[in-house]
């Protein structure tokens, strides 16, 4: 069953509204920034508590479970550090402890990852990203296959108002028709760009699960359906200011906070997230589009050598 929302964060909020006062949630330590803010600025007032941990470490997940833990939130790859978590093992641990496992599958889409087949209870997507695919619509969805949870989500969707407009639904439906083509091409470009950036002397590290150098490359290979996605983060051998300046020197990559569209986007994540962000100063997040790979590489070459 799929429930459509007016935005990804609308879908995410609906899932958190399944919880009750006093519940505890486990989140990745580099969870999508707005989820952290939602917990800290809104849901804390409802006495919900949370722990942020390194989800790529199973022992940390087990140790974080408390008596009142009701939900484990996963992003794999995580935003923006592209850590991979073992969805199957974590879902198993969660089930044993009567905890819901929720996976935000925005970055890989169902083309490359099917969390419910790996044991997750709920999957959420920001349809704003790859489903829409053209950076011109907002949307989100919650996917599940439990009728009790579905009744609850349906009531939350209907009563709290984050419903999408008919036109936005039509745009997202049209986008989904080309999802497979777009994300396959974007992923091919991302892999080639990641390889190129990895060999550049000004790049300290490339965070991309398709590279053998990625700490969870083997897990990504096993868990994902032959695709590593089109999001890449890089750490530059530079100060915060220099890193930010590089992001503005790119000509083909537009500076923007969203991702997943056909055109390549880039952002200096820390300056978007603000002073309490835990994202490294020297990190640039790249959403790779469908342009010619030679043009994408040439743009980085000129920006990095400027
Ligand atoms: C992983 C992830 N989930 C959810 C969202 C929120 O989606 P929306 O912008 O549609 O509210 C984002 C937005 O950047 C995201 O990156």
């Amino acid at each position: 069953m799929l429930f459509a929302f007016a935005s990804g964060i609308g879908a995410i909020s609906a899932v958190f509204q399944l919880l009750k006062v006093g519940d505890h949630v486990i989140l990745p330590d580099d969870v999508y920034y707005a989820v952290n803010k939602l917990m800290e600025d809104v849901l804390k007032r409802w006495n919900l508590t949370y722990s942020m941990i390194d989800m790529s470490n199973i022992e940390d997940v087990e140790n974080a479970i408390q008596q009142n833990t009701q939900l484990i939130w996963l992003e794999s790859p995580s935003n923006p550090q592209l850590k991979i978590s073992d969805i199957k093992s974590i879902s198993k641990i969660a089930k044993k402890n009567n905890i819901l496992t929720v996976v935000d599958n925005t970055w890989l889409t169902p083309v490359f990852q099917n969390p419910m087949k790996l044991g997750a209870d709920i999957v959420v997507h920001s349809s704003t990203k790859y489903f829409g695919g053209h950076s011109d619509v907002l949307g989100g969805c919650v996917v599940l296959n439990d009728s009790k949870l579905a009744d609850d989500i349906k009531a939350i969707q209907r009563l709290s108002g984050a419903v999408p407009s008919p036109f936005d639904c039509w745009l997202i439906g049209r986008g989904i028709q080309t999802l497979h083509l777009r994300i396959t091409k974007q992923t091919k470009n991302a892999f080639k760009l990641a390889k190129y950036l990895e060999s550049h002397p000004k790049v300290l590290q490339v965070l991309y699960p398709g590279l053998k150098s990625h700490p969870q490359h083997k897990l990504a290979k096993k868990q994902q359906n032959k695709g590593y996605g089109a999001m890449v983060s890089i750490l530059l051998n530079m100060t915060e200011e220099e890193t930010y300046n590089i992001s503005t020197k790119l000509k083909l990559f537009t500076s923007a906070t969203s991702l997943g569209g056909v055109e390549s986007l880039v952002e200096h994540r820390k300056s978007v997230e603000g002073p309490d962000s835990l994202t490294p100063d020297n990190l640039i997040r790249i959403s790779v589009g469908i342009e010619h790979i030679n043009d994408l590489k040439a743009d980085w070459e000129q920006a990095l050598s400027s």
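Residues 179-198 form the longest helix (20 residues). Residues 7-9, 32, 75, 79, 104, 106-107, 126, 128, 138, 140 surround pyridoxal-5'-phosphate (CB under 6 Å).
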